Amino acid sequence: MPRTDQQDKGQQGEDAALAHLGKHGLTLVQRNFRCQGGELDLVMRDGAHLVFVEVRRRQDKRFGGAAASITPAKQRRLVHAAQTYLLRYPRLPPCRFDVVAIEGERIEWLKNVMILQA
C-alpha cells in the first residue's frame, strides 16, 4: 500500500528527531512501537534512562505549534503504550517522556515533559 504525503512527512520528522537526539548521545532502542491503544514514535536510551519520545511536526506556530498539539488524550495513549512496552522488562529502568517539536526547520527537544492534565 503506498504511503501518503502525510506519512512521508511524519517519517521525515522522525528521521530528523532521531538524528538530533543521536547527536546528543541518545541511542535508538526501537522505532514506531505500536500496541492496541497507542504508539511510541521513538524509544531511546539516555544513559540508564529509557526515553519515550513523541515527535510532533508543524509548519509554524499557528494554533499553538508542535508541542501544544499533544492533547491530554494523546498523552494518555502514550502512557498506555509505554506501560505496554515496559511489560518486557523484568526490572523497570528509570524512564521519562520527551518531545521533539519540529516547526519548519527548527527542532526543539523538550525533556521530561509529559504530565497528564485532567
TrEMBL record:
CDD domains: PoNe_Nuclease (cd20736). Transmembrane segments: none annotated. InterPro entries: Restrct_endonuc-II-like, tRNA_endonuc-like_dom_sf, UPF0102_YraN-like. Pfam families: UPF0102. GO terms for molecular function: nucleic acid binding. Belongs to the UPF0102 family. HAMAP family: UPF0102. This is UPF0102 protein GCM10011572_18790. It comes from Pseudoduganella buxea.
